[in-house]
Amino acid sequence: MRAEGxxxxxxxxxxxGRGIAEGHCGDSxxxxxxxxxxxxxE
Length: 42
Known about the structure:
The protein is built from 2 helices and no strands. By secondary structure, the protein is mainly α. Helix 1 runs antiparallel to helix 2. It is flat and about 30 Å long. The two termini are 15 Å apart.
């Protein structure tokens, strides 16, 4: 696993965690997949 040091990556990860906590798991999961794809393609 690559070291993910970018602030944007962590902001997205924490946003995903907060989404789960608020019960928006489906939307957050979709967002996380998009985030991972975006960061992986950089």
